Amino acid sequence: MKFVDEFREPEVITRTSEQIRRLADPKRHYRIMEVCGGHTHAIYRFGLKDLLPSNLELIHGPGCPVCVLPMGRIDDGLSIAQRPEVIFAAFGDMMRVPGTQGSPLEHKARGMDVRIVYSPSDALKLAEANPDKHVMFFAIGFETTAPSTALTLVRAKAQGIHNFSVFSNHVTIIPAMRAILDSPDMRIDAFIGPGHVSTVIGCRPYEWIAQNEHKPVAVSGFEPLDILQSIVMVLRQLRANEAKIENQYKRVVPWEGNRAALRAMAEVFELRPYFEWRGLGFISQSALGIRPGYAEWDAERRFDVPGVRVTDPKAAQCGEVLKGVLKPHQCKLFARECTPEHPIGALMVSSEGSCAAYFNYEHRKTELVTSISSTA
Amino acid sequence: MCLAIPGQLVEFFPDQPNIALIDVVGVRRKVDLGLLADDPPVKGDWVLIHVGFAMSKISEEDALDQMRTLRMLGEAEAAMQEVEGYGLGNPAGDGS
Prior knowledge:
The complex is a heterodimer.
Chain A: H1 10-23, E1 30-36, H2 37-45, E2 56-63, H3 65-68, H4 71-80, E3 86-90, H5 104-109, E4 114-116, H6 120-129, E5 134-141, H7 146-159, E6 164-170, H8 173-182, E7 190-193, H9 195-201, H10 207-211, E8 217-219, H11 224-239, E9 245-247, H12 259-268, E10 269-271, E11 274-277, E12 281-284, E13 288-290, H13 299-302, H14 318-322, H15 354-375
Parallel strand pairs in A: 1-2, 1-7, 3-4, 3-5, 5-6, 7-8, 8-9
Antiparallel strand pairs in A: 10-13, 11-12
Helix pairs in contact in A: 1-11, 2-15, 7-12
Chain B: E1 5-13, E2 16-24, E3 27-32, E4 46-50, E5 53-58, H1 60-72, H2 76-85
Antiparallel strand pairs in B: 1-2, 1-4, 2-3, 4-5
């Protein structure tokens, strides 16, 4: 166990791992989905698979905002930024995500004004500092990030800053979970719920999963022990044939969520009738557009947007990986044409993407073992 | 994307009620407190920060735990880079 010595309480980890083995029925195969990309990263980084019985499979969910963004949206955003007056501002995670004509970083190399910001409020500051330019913030993220974009727009309106707009790609997690449960090729026994999304939305929005679908959910923290304890929680429920929402991450997640954040979102955003997700297709009411009251700051209203639709390269199987139908290494391009250095699909770009996580931890480990055994 | 960075509120500004100076292991930057409007923090409180906004109040113990989690995840460096980048890299946080 490569990282077990670093764990805060190795003996508790070992005990919890044993507890999972005792709870898992050896005659059954378990498919538990961790919804959040942060959990996917943690699971690979800590090698948690090695602490689980072989009949317990972790399925990596859609909770990586960069990964679920269809390429057409990147092309749309970059097409607005072709205008000479526009500065394209986005988080660092976006910079290497490929569009059909290259990533934002590659557009920057060709002369586009592309800036990394660490906060949407800094994109607004950039607009204030460049009154003769127009700053377009390319917004991505689930409910963890959407309230910050919302408050930034509230501040832009209050301060009368007019050379600023948001190209909103904000998405919401519940419709994606519903789409996964509705998908005929998916069979999920339980969910490990996202930690930081839940600080905003709380635990109530998951209740239908227990009530209508009879699947357990444990909202989880990000430490190895948090994730293992969440697995214990859902296994206990499955064993007792129960389905309820448990909050393993109580130290951060209030049951009711953050009402001020929800108010900010409701003030600025409205649900789009539908939105395309990479790998999952069009999902109704799954994304946040900007309300008419903020139309002036809505890049999609303010500029012509081509509305590009790009199908993923045929050979890349991002969709199947994203839905958990294929493991990253089962994709034909994995570690061949598609690597973290030269990503073809977004799952290979973000550290929260399952392909990048698998490549950095599992694949490199296998390569190392192979090279050691071949030189021995 | 999902980084939540723990920091301690060290200073408020009378002319900017939504803004506070936070300290993340010695790096000080301004963050927005607007999302904690229902339960405003006071000087000395610990918060989790995401993309320049305080998202939730936490205990000092949980703040230290969170910093260790980030180190274990290999994300402490990215977190510090994010904090240092707030205010367009300017400690005064005014973008000037």
